[in-house]
Design a protein that fits this description.
The complex is a heterodimer. Chain A is mainly alpha-helical. Chain A is 78% helix and 0% strand. Classes of the chains: A mainly alpha, B mainly alpha.
Chain lengths: 269, 299
Amino acid sequence: MSVNIKPIAVHVFRESVRDRVPYTLVLFAVLLIAASFLLGQLTAGQDIKIIKDLGLAATSLFGLFIAVFIGIALVSKEVERRSIYGLLTKPVSRAQFIAGKYAGLLVTLAVNVAIMTAALYLVLAYMTWQEPANVRAAWDAPGVDPALLGAVLLIFVELALVTAIALFFSTFSTPMLSAALTLGLWIAGRFNADLRNFDAVVESAPAAWLARVLYHVLPDFSAFDVKLQVVHGLPISAGYLAATVAYGGAYILALLLAATVIFARRDFK
Amino acid sequence: MSGRGSPLLAVAAVAALGGAVALQAARDAAYPRDEAAQVRTEQLYVRSPEAIKRLAPGFNALAADVYWIRAIQHFGGARLAEPGAQDYSLLFPLLDIATTLDPYFNIAYRFGAIFLSEPHPGGPGRPDLAVRLLQKGIAAQPTRWQYYHDLAFVHYWHTRDYEAAAEWFRRASEQPDAPAWLAPMVPVMLTRAEDRTSARTLWHQIMQSDQQWLQRTAERSLMQLDALDAIDVLQPIVDRVALSAGEQYSWGLLARRGAVRGTPLDPAGVPFELYPESGIVSVSRSSPLFPLPVETPAR
């Protein structure tokens, strides 16, 4: 089965390179380097914190755009170009097609996130090297802090989940509607924690029950955000990281299976 | 479009951009803009920290950084404004937003402690807001001794509430990782409240900070203490000089009588002010040390 998935994934990755997705990396690098030179003049000694904030936020935001705007086109583009007809005549099942497309975009995202992380560490290493020991001692966390990788890991899993949502919607909807639904779900998921305590602000028991159900059903994107804690050197337990990655994995699996079911029902005759 | 035409088009595009730049420069030279009319009153359109938190889901830390930079620019801009035009009204709201978006933003709390309580015109002169901001910091990080220390300092230096200062020093000394010198500050506050030595001790501690702006503030405050010491020496000298009818106090008169060797300078190098009628010695309004944290006695 994996023999059929791999060529599709490789094709998606090559297509993203052809679509100039790596240009975002250049933009990211320019943003970080420019910021590192300018911030020292503006931030009264908070440049290392702001570079970390900026680097992690940009990794998350650029990744979100890639995940949404490429994810929504993964299936619809094949249908639009009518290349799906030729593809499905080959010994490729619809499940393999979905898995291959997803894996391809995941590789694209992984490469992007890895390069952005490396660039962030390089800038942080340079700034750490520049600062005297007494300034470094006053930082909340070390400049080149391995704990940042915990935040990066959760950003990547969050992006993988966004990609799965975009792919899910793209199996039955138009690209524009898929983008709107994916971004809408991402925003709703960011405020998911509010639904948990909805019974504190409404008296209606059914409304509180519905909010509680939505809290569990909607993807909890706020759980993936540990940027603030990591930048300030606050501990993130390995258990929390593992539980959140596992939660993301389970949600992704559910979405891919649902996407496969819907896609399998589509008639391309 | 043929391949041969493309370089020509690229050159034309660059030339057009160059033309736009040149036209802008020429227009600005021919029709100078009325800069005064363009000065925009600084605005804070959204004042609710919670609303801003909702507007930047997942990017609160970055939004906090933006508000922090705005707070610095606002403070710096107000300090550099014309005398009498210093307006620090947005400083607290900006710091409040920054610290709501990022509750662990240590420097924003400490910035508030020092500069919100700085007397006018060097700051807004609102130690009450500094206390509010630091208490918010303590709510976010109850074991961070620096916030307790800064609260004690605001009470000691600005509100002159030495009992409150002693209490906050006591709480600071009880926090984990608190330095050993905090505990002795409690009796210092209680028994030597009028003594400048303890103020010097505090400012010397702040001088050890890695932040240049904190070091500069500490340096200025230490010079103010030196100025107060110098005034304590000069004032009795002036008081001993008896004036004849029609005479007024001046450094020239005191020098002629042999009371002083010349015009005494404050630690910033500016001549001390000697009021001709009352004979009160103070720092000059043109001195960077003005105003002193302690009022000179009125006569």
